[in-house]
Amino acid sequence: MITSTTPYVAERETVATLGVVSGEAIIGAHIFRDLFAGITNIIGGRAGGYEKALREARDIALQEMIDEARRQGADAVVGVDLDYEALGADNGMLMVTAAGTAVKLR
């Protein structure tokens, strides 16, 4: 499935717009990731546990969006947008949403 943040796919004609598709992923922040992120913040560097969790959540959200587009018979999803949001008590959960427009291409 072709996905693009642009409103079209280069060198391909859009012949039908099928509608908005989306996917969501909510992942809880694990206590050990929190602990190691705190240590990283003190000594400097990157918070690898959080980065991995963000990548996993993003991949899940994108796959759910693509699966919905496939069910609608789409060839591509254009105008893809990713949103990140902290949720829950003490922002202990992370939600990633992927949304775009499912289209048929020539």
Going by CATH, the homologous superfamily would be Hypothetical protein apc22750. Chain B
What is the alpha-carbon Rg in Å? 17 Å
Count of individual helical segments = 2
Number of domains: 1
Average pLDDT, all residues: 86
CATH class: Alpha Beta
What is the oligomeric state here?
single chain
Strand content: 35-45%
User: Structural class of the secondary elements?
Assistant: alpha+beta
Spatial sequence of strands, sheet with the most strands? 1-3-4-2
In CATH terms, what is the fold-level topology? Translation Initiation Factor IF3
The number of strands is 4
Secondary-structure element sequence?
EEHHEE
Outline type: elongated
First-last Cα distance: 14 Å
| CATH architecture term | 2-Layer Sandwich
Unreliable spans are none
What does the main sheet amount to?
4 strands, mixed
Describe the structure in your own words.
With 106 residues, the protein is of the alpha+beta class. It has a single domain, classed as Hypothetical protein apc22750. Chain B (Translation Initiation Factor IF3). The protein contains two helices and four strands. The protein has helices at 31-43, 48-71; strands spanning 2-3, 14-28, 76-87, 93-105. Strands 1-3-4-2 form a four-stranded mixed β-sheet. A hairpin with a 5-residue loop joins strand 3 (76-87) and strand 4 (93-105). The longest helix is centred in the middle third of the chain and has 24 residues, at 48-71. It is elongated. The model has no long low-confidence stretch (mean pLDDT 86).
